[in-house]
Amino acid sequence: MFCGEKVALRARIESDVAVLHAELYDDVMTRLQADTRPWRALAPGSALAPFAMADPTDDSVAFSVVELVDGEPLAGAAVLHGIDQHNRSAHLGITLRPAYRDRGLGLDTVRVLCDYGFRIRGLHRLAIETLSDNGAMLRTSDNAGFVREGALRQAAWVSGRFLDVVLLGLLAEEWNAARSLSRDELLDEAGRESFPASDPPAL
What we know:
8 strands; 5 helices; single chain; disordered C terminus; alpha+beta; globular; Aminopeptidase; 29% helix
């Protein structure tokens, strides 16, 4: 597993598939926030199902997200996709089960994915594309240090209307600088923690 403060990324296992499919795919409105392609009825075992078990490829690696508490409950899914080894770039995406939202797990999931992409995969740039009305993902991206680079106007047809797609990017040097700053801010001038351990500064 690849761990953060609140969550870990691990390989998807068979028992994850039905849960993720039921809560994150068969819930049509939730799925439309994560994928602008038309929703289709798919069985969890279908090769086309988005949460089906699959080995990593050169251009994509999918994870299950688990919360770092007793029993490590399944919290959602995360993916690094469109990995371009020549330009050292990739795109990331996350989706959490309804019961695990609004608890800071999304931000930690994005941070762990960034750490994996930059430190383990040696990438130079990570990108997020999200719908303009996806306030939770926009806030999470901002808090993780992503820079809003622009928007594709009315590029997504979602539930009967066109929406802009917001483009965000983060470079390795920005990530490393933010991590260094965060470590420096852990201690105040007296060498004591300057904030509660449960409330670290946003990167």
